[in-house]
What we know:
Blueprint: H1 2-62, E1 71-73, E2 76-77, H2 83-99, E3 102-107, E4 110-115, E5 122-123, H3 125-134, H4 141-154, E6 156-158, E7 162-163, H5 170-180, E8 188-191, E9 199-202, E10 207-209, H6 212-224, E11 229-232, E12 236-238, H7 244-248, E13 252-260, H8 266-277, E14 282-284, E15 289-291, H9 292-296, E16 307-311, E17 317-321, H10 325-338, E18 342-345, E19 372-374, E20 381-388, E21 391-398, E22 406-417, E23 423-426, E24 439-443, E25 448-459, E26 462-474, E27 480-483
Parallel strand pairs: 1-6, 3-11, 23-27
Antiparallel strand pairs: 1-2, 3-4, 5-7, 8-9, 10-12, 13-21, 14-20, 15-19, 16-17, 18-19, 20-21, 22-25, 24-27, 25-26
Helix pairs in contact: 1-4, 2-3, 8-10
Amino acid sequence: MGDIHVNTAETVSADSRPGKKRKIVIITIIVTLLIGILCFAGYEVNKIIEHKKWIEHMTEVVDVPVIYEGIWVDDIHLGGMSIEEAKSVLAERTRESLEEIKFELIHNDKRWTITYKDIGAYIDWDKKIDQAYQIAREGELEERYNRIKEIEANGVRLKTSLFYNMNLVRNTLESIAREISYDPVDADIKFFPNRENKFEITEEKSGLTLDVDSLFNELAEKMKNREYGELALSPDEVLPKVTKAQLQKATHRIAVFSTSVATSTADRKHNVRLALSKINGYRLDPGEVFSFNETVGPRTAKTGFRSAPVIMPDKSLQDDYGGGVCQSSSTVYNAALRADLEIVERYHHSFPIAYVPIGLDATVSYGGADLKFRNNKDLPIFIRTYSVGDNVYVEIYGEKFPNNGEISCSSTVKSVVPAPAPKRILDKNGKYVREPGGQYEYVKSRNGYRVTSYKTYYENGKKIWTKVIANDYYRPIQGIIYYRPAEKAE
């Protein structure tokens, strides 16, 4: 039995050992887990603490009332500056930059200054400061922080812009141009027909003109390239249209024509000479038209004309003021033809007259028929009139023809139209015929003529050309005779 007791005790002791081990393992695991939990918890706490510190650090970096480091405007570092500090620095630098904008326009001893104020120039520095301050101030904290660090490492540079309006100086440039520019002065010529030295010629003078558009473009280009400083103005020379050398060519006598007043009455001679005297010294510039009626004016007693025979509309000859003036116009006409001037207006008489060849006359009537010719040359022409004895002369001065050129005029009668028999009118009241059996030729019967006039141009005596001047038709005139029959014998 004793053995049996002993064996039972050994069995119980053997069974209790594995349970104890399990307890130890479980406890170990639990302790390990607790230690792990405690370690993890400590790590998380440290992590939270570190994160909080990092947030605080980023916040300190981000939330500052100054421009971040590494930010530049032009060549000025604004990092660490407040907006007011940055404005103070850039305002001064901008003022210095704007004051560099200055152009000195120079011509001889005159100067004109154009500054930045004249073109409304300004620099957008205040806008760039605001832009600089706003950099990295939007977005999440860490995003802003990283951007700030990137800026510190690499930098950000902003450029200001210069704004201006060049059109503001255009009026100034035009004013300068008016001050510099002046018109050229043409050479001038004066004609003294009664002097031995008939011409006086003044020298020409060149003018100056400043091309405002060219100056404006040049100034704008210099402004664009910031090439400030002095600019010498270069106005262009303006040459006169007429020079003394040119006018000297207009001093040659290129035509002369004369008619005789030997058979005229004293009053008629007076009228011819008076009309021509009003033309003496006349200047006709290129393109201008000479009018005989405008130049001589009305033919009245008040203007100095006398009564002398005039061809009336009914073809009779009767005394009237200005009789004989047509001889003056015909003399001028022939001189104009020989000067090769352009005839604008001309009329022939009712019948051929004695003082010029048929077809080469020019009748005038104030308020009616006129003699007009145009100066078709490049230089002025001048008219001189005078009389010697019973001859009156018209000379024309201008640029001479080449190679001793000259013009002669002629006419040819193409046909003759016989005059009709005169008309006989009984003078019942004795207005023209007082004695019975007498008669009075009131209008003379005249043949009609078809005439062609010519002018021929010669150089060194050789004919160069012939041109028709006019084809005239002098209509036949039926005479008028007033009569009274003879008394019958008782």
